[in-house]
User: What shape does this take?
Amino acid sequence: MDPEVARTNLLEKRADAMRRLRGLDASFADIVEAARDSNLDDEHDPEGTTVAVSRAQVSSLASETRQQLDAIDAALERVADGSYGVCSRCGQRIADARLDALPVTTTCVDCARSAGRASS
Ligand SMILES: [Zn+2]
Assistant: This one.
């Protein structure tokens, strides 16, 4: 894959993830705000459970998104040092179709398959 194409794809993904993270931070703030309001009324408000659940969901989505950002940054570093698109297990080039679908992948499809088999 052309490193410039890879870089553009990754930067787009990075911008998407950043937007998603900002959205999640905003909803997290809303939920915290809502929780503060409802706690004034009644600490054992059934609403409180819902708030805790949505807080947990938002924070797990946010940490997922942060992990994606880390993976994207790592992929961008590989683009910069020229190792992008090379399988980290067997050293073969990763097919463009796979990089299109999974821009942050570090393994070729064969190695991914054998890793899947080994771990299951
Ligand atoms: Zn491989």
Notes: DSSP finds four helices and no strands in the chain. Residues 87, 89-90, 92, 107-108, 110-111 surround zinc ion (CB under 6 Å). The helical segments are 3-41, 46-81, 96-101, 109-119. The mean pLDDT is 88.
